[in-house]
Design goal:
The protein contains three helices and no strands. The chain is mostly helical and 71 residues long. The longest helix has 32 residues.
Amino acid sequence: MNKNIQRGLLLVGALSAATGAMAAAAPDLSGLTAAVDFSSVLTGVVAIGVAVAGVYVLIRGVKIILPLIRG
């Protein structure tokens, strides 16, 4: 057999064995993820989004109203 083919087969075997070992020993992170609360961060992000949307609505309203006033 060609040396390159042997090396390729050895590499594929090593990678598949390593992947199988990683899949079998998946860590349980439920305790870590349960301790994190994103509700305050989510509230802040939504509040900033609403403020930015309000600014855009205000600008759009001014662009509509000013030409009506100028007549």
